[in-house]
Amino acid sequence: MSRLLLVRHAQASFLEQTYDKLSALGETQSRLLGEFWARHKLHFDRVCSGPCVRQKDTAAIVAAAYRQMNLAFPELLELPEFDEYQGEVVMERSLPALIESDREIAALHSAFQSSTEPRARRKTFQKLFEAVIGRWVEEKIPSNSVEPWRDFAVRVNQGLTKFLAGGESNERVAIFTSGGPIGLAVQRALDLSAQNALRVSWMAQNSSFSEFLFSSDRFTLSSFNAVPHLDDPALQTYR
Q1: Between 73 and 217, where is the model more confident?
Q2: Closest to 194 (Cα-Cα) out of 145, 153, 230
Q3: Pairing of strands 209-215, 76-78
Q4: CB 234: neighbour CB atoms within 10 A?
Q5: 84: helix, coil or strand?
Q6: pLDDT value at position 239?
Q7: DSSP code of 175?
Q8: Domain boundaries, the chain
Q9: Per-residue pLDDT tens for 168-180?
């Protein structure tokens, strides 16, 4: 059996003008992940990431930690199939109409708008985001020219099939991606519904890794959402 470590990118720049870049804490999380793997002499045969800056930079910092300890790390392959769904675009295009037509969304939006403390703003935004994206996954709101969830799921699964079939037996590989593709990988392993796959994606912590065992006819979840490199709770984040 071969092993896949599916890594969620480290913390990005939440609620800043440019979200798709690592925060200072995200850079620390990435470095600690690389140092942890290097100390434990985890050898990887192949590594890839999605096209997002936050995904590629997480992988690059991990690779730098390996080099710092004079260990080899594979050259990063970029695959568009592991891009995240366009959640921010769904929010931008759907929220105005939902505020007018959906009482729950209106209340969640009001709570977010009235929050000022950073932790409260993260919490209230997450609740709003989950509610809107949940309706989008259920196709209760129009896609507004955004890739639908069903197409997103097909894309990620095609990427998994392509990448996992491209190596030898008994290898260890890693994919640096985001919460959505991780939820879909767990769905693939456990035959979850779309809504449960979405719930799984909310649970993935920044810089966490989940392990899957795979062969030509098997894809099994071994562990989920591990953060042994983040022993200080202050380093553990979801956004």
Answers
A1: 73
A2: 153
A3: unpaired
A4: 7
A5: coil
A6: 83
A7: E
A8: 2-84+147-233, 87-137
A9: 889 999 999 999 9
Token pair, residue 96, equals 């105005």
Instruction: Give the chain's length.
Output: 239
- State pLDDT tens for residues 197-222: 999 999 999 999 999 999 988 999 99
Tell me: the pLDDT tens digits for 40-68?
999 999 999 999 999 999 999 999 999 99
What distance in Å separates the CA atoms of residue 112 and residue 123, rounded to the nearest whole number? 8
**Sheet of strand 172-177: strand arrangement:** 76-78, 46-49, 172-177, 2-8, 209-215, 218-226
* Alpha-carbon gap, residue 200 to 196, rounded angstroms: 6
How far is the C-alpha of 184 from the C-alpha of 43, rounded, in Å? 25
> Which pTM does this prediction carry?
0.92
Q: How far apart are CA 106 and CA 103, in angstroms?
A: 5
Q: Which residues pair with 47 in a beta bridge?
A: 76, 174
For the 2-84+147-233 domain, the top CATH level (class) is: alpha beta
Where does the chain have alpha helices with state H? 24-39, 53-68, 87-101, 103-114, 118-137, 149-164, 179-190, 194-203
**What whole-number distance in Å separates Cα of residue 28 and Cα of residue 65?**
11
Amino acid code (one letter) for 67: R
Cα(37)–Cα(15) distance, integer angstroms: 30
Compute the distance between CA of residue 12 and CA of residue 57 in angstroms, rounded to an integer: 10
Alpha-carbon distance of 1 to 18, in angstroms, equals 40
